Amino acid sequence: MQNNKNTLALIDLIVEAIEDVKGDDIKVLDLTEIDNAIANYFIICSGNTNTQVKAISGSIRKKTSKNLQEKPWHTEGEENSEWILMDYISVVVHVFQKPIREYYNIEELWADAKLIKN
Question: In sequence order, which residues have a C-beta less than 8 Å from that of residue 42 and are 6 or more positions away?
Answer without folding.
Answer: 27, 28, 29, 31, 91, 92, 93, 94, 106, 110, 113
